[in-house]
Design the sequence.
């Protein structure tokens, strides 16, 4: 098993490089693009001097490489900074909350009291369980929908199953997730009253967003699965199995499905991972679902640098880890693949 | 992406180029014809109708607010898709939105196609350190969710068609670079390239005149499908308020503005979506047919 270890070490090292690169890209992008978070934080009524002082305090006026090194040095110790806008109690720190209006003394006091900003890790940790539940349910629905259809289509090329899969795939991939979300809210929640949505007050609130995710992901799996099964059916071992007199069922289950699962796993690493992340952001935003995605969309709109960076690192790490796990899993299914 | 690498043995030498044969095969499929028909109809309407129609897509008409579409009670022939909260004709607005969305998506795909293919050929044909650096950059780029990238860039400056297109190009080019790289890697080792080298052809000549023509068949369908994908992104940006700004109609901002009226005047946020989806389905049908045609040509399977 030593080669598994060297494989893991090599891939993890590559992964760290990618995550660093992503962090640096986002980090630079955030700072190069005009738009001052301190200005948004303190509101338009604050004088330039106060804004400048606060920016100095937050270290936003140092050079970008300097800021980046400082950030990374803290991040490896598990300190991802604090949100600029979200308070410890989860209440948004608005300009009014942070800088009081008239009495300067009470204002300062108020500011001290409310300036305990929430750590980025806390913001992420608060939303993560909801997001994981949504992503998990979404994936479950996707597989329930796509796997039977994909296998049926792959085994019955040019028959009605194949045409059905082609049709469903083409329609599903054409449904924009935010529009589908609106229509489901209208039909299922508002008109029929079958399922709740908007916000989160119980498990029922996960189902509609998860369906939206599943509709977005299913076409890719249906297409990938039917293509790789059709391809596997052409392989020599199928006719070999027939000649050896193996039952058709056994050829399909043991050989065809097993061989066609490897391209599927690769699909999961790159495409599904990316789509799932993007889809979670949008569905959480439209359904006002309290996960990491909603916080991120809000963070970006407010230019809450620490939160955006934290989420970017998290997202990139998840994708990198997913890819490593996929490669590892494929080598266990197919021993011929090199680590 | 792994599936794109096995493009080494297309049947050749029957006079007609692989690209032409792929398009002919696709043309023979019903799904391609349906897609093309619907697409032509919609695009034709989008080009012609806003010019002929008596309604200005941005003109507010207080007396005609919240008119339902033709198939509902109270609908009129004058406003086929109804009117919105400001009395603007939704049919005309949707068609102008289609113009904007499709224009941006097509431009973005064209640009990312050129950039991605150029970088992919360089990466795959010359290899070495260029290859390593470019591939790491694509890895990093693909690890950033498009939405985060888009909101980061577009939420700051007032978004316009150029910035929206730029973001889409930034998000989309790595896929082309990677697919084309794998093709160039495979082609580099083939006899015709060695033969050309022996005859004294330069690297530039080999890359542009001999390897580049092989790129189109495996990637044409990716580009067609990407037009639909980019239209969805453009609409999504509009919906999030970071696309082209109102009053210029785009699918996204019509839906975002109409969201408030979802329960009582549901056609305002949903009708533009119907036009968008019809366009997307037609494009996806054409793209998927091309993909099937390619698979038939390259692997001898359906």
Sequence:
């Amino acid at each position: 098993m030593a080669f598994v270890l060297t494989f893991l070490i090599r891939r993890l090292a590559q992964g760290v490089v990618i995550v660093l690169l992503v962090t640096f890209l986002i980090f630079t992008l955030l700072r190069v693009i005009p738009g001052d978070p301190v200005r948004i934080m303190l509101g338009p009524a604050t004088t330039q001097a106060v804004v400048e002082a606060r920016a100095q305090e937050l270290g936003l006026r140092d050079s970008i490489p300097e800021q980046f090194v400082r950030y990374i040095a803290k991040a490896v110790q598990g300190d991802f900074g604090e949100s600029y806008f979200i308070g410890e109690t989860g209440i948004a720190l608005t300009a009014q909350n942070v800088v009081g209006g008239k009495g300067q003394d009470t204002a300062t006091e108020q500011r001290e009291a409310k300036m305990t900003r929430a750590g980025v890790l806390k913001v992420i940790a608060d939303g993560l369980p909801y997001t994981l539940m949504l992503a998990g349910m979404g994936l479950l629905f996707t597989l329930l929908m796509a796997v039977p259809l994909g296998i049926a289509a792959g085994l019955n090329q040019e028959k009605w199953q194949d045409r059905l899969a082609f049709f469903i795939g083409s329609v599903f991939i054409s449904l924009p997730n935010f529009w589908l979300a609106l229509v489901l809210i209208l039909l299922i929640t508002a008109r029929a009253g079958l399922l709740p949505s908007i916000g989160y007050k119980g498990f029922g609130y996960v189902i509609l967003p998860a369906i939206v995710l599943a509709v977005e992901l299913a076409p890719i799996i249906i297409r990938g699965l039917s293509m790789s099964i059709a391809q596997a059916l052409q392989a020599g071992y199928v006719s070999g199995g027939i000649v050896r007199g193996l039952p058709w069922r056994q050829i399909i289950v043991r050989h065809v499905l097993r061989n066609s699962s490897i391209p599927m796993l690769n699909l999961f690493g790159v495409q599904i991972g990316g789509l799932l992340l993007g889809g979670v952001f949008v569905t959480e935003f439209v359904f006002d679902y309290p996960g990491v995605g909603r916080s991120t969309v809000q963070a970006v709109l407010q230019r809450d640098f620490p939160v955006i960076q934290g989420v970017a690192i998290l997202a990139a790490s998840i994708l990198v880890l997913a890819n490593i796990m996929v490669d590892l899993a494929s080598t266990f299914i197919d021993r011929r693949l090199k680590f | 992406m792994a599936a794109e690498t096995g493009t080494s043995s297309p049947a050749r030498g029957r006079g007609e180029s692989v690209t032409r044969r792929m398009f002919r095969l696709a043309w023979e499929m019903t799904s391609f014809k349906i897609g093309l028909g619907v697409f032509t109809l919609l695009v034709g309407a989008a080009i012609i109708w806003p010019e002929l129609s008596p309604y200005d897509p941005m003109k507010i008409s207080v007396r005609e607010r919240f008119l339902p579409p033709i198939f509902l009670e109270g609908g009129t022939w004058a406003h086929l898709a109804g009117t919105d909260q400001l009395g603007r004709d939704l049919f005309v607005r949707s068609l102008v939105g289609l113009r904007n969305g499709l224009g941006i998506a097509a431009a973005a795909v064209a640009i990312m196609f050129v950039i991605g293919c150029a970088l992919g050929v360089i990466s795959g044909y010359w290899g070495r350190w260029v290859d390593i650096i470019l591939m790491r950059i694509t890895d990093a780029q693909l690890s950033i969710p498009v939405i985060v990238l888009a909101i980061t860039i577009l939420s700051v400056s007032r978004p316009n068609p150029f910035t929206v297109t730029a973001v889409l190009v930034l998000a989309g080019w790595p896929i082309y670079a990677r697919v084309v790289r794998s093709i160039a890697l495979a082609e580099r080792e083939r006899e015709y390239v060695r033969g050309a080298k022996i005859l004294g052809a330069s690297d530039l000549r080999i890359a542009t005149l001999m390897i580049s023509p092989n790129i189109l068949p495996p990637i044409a369908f990716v580009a067609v499908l990407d037009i639909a994908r980019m239209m969805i992104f453009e609409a999504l940006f509009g919906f999030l308020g970071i696309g082209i700004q109102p009053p210029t109609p785009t699918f996204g901002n019509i839906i975002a503005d109409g969201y408030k009226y979802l329960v009582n005047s549901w056609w305002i946020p949903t009708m533009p979506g119907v036009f968008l989806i019809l366009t997307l389905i037609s494009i996806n049908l054409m793209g998927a047919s091309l993909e099937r045609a390619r698979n038939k040509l390259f692997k001898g399977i359906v």
About this structure: Chain B touches chain A through 50 residues (CB under 8 Å). The domain at 2-52+85-299 of chain B is CATH 1.10.3720.10 (MetI-like fold).
